[in-house]
């Protein structure tokens, strides 16, 4: 799913992907693991920031981790972002979806 999403976003001239991930304060948490950060690292995301104890749920505090991934180079005068409608036929042709 992420691979298809990244291909579609590239067709739309999107350069930056950002992931906001809930992250437990304690190593052991009955409701949430830290696996999502490792998952995103394997997909090429890099750590961008951390908000400490900013979410409260299930009687405990959680951090929020921000990660980012660049899909392309940041050049002068980049091409305009395209709506999904503008790339829908290309997505169907190249990826066989929609």
Question: Describe it for me?
Answer:
Helices cover 31% and strands 33% of the residues. The chain is α+β, with helices and mostly antiparallel strands and 98 residues long. The mean pLDDT is 95. Strand 2 and strand 3 form a beta hairpin. The chain starts with a helix and ends with a helix. The radius of gyration is 17 Å and the shape is elongated. The longest helix is centred in the C-terminal third of the chain and has 12 residues, at 84-95. It has a three-stranded antiparallel sheet with strand order 1-3-2, covered by helices on one side. It is built from three helices and three strands, in the order αβαββα.
- Looking across the biggest beta sheet, what order are the strands in? 1-3-2
Biggest sheet character: 3 strands, antiparallel
Oligomeric category? single chain
Please compute the radius of gyration using only Cα atoms: 17 Å
Point out poorly predicted stretches: none
Distance between the termini: 14 Å
Helix count, DSSP H or I runs of 4 or more residues = 3
Residues in helix, %: 25-40%
Outline type:
elongated
Rounded average pLDDT: 95
Total strand segments: 3
Share of residues in strands? 25-35%
Order of helices and strands: HEHEEH
The class by helix and strand makeup works out as: alpha+beta
């Amino acid at each position: 799913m992420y691979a298809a999403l990244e291909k579609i976003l590239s067709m739309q001239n999107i350069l930056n992907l950002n992931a906001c991930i809930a992250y437990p304060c304690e190593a052991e948490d009955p409701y949430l693991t830290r696996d999502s950060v490792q998952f995103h690292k394997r997909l090429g995301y890099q750590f961008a920031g951390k908000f400490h104890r900013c979410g409260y749920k299930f009687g405990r505090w959680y951090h929020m981790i921000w990660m980012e991934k660049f899909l392309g180079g940041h050049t002068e005068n980049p091409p305009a972002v395209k709506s999904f409608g503008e790339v829908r036929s290309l997505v169907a042709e190249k990826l066989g979806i929609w």
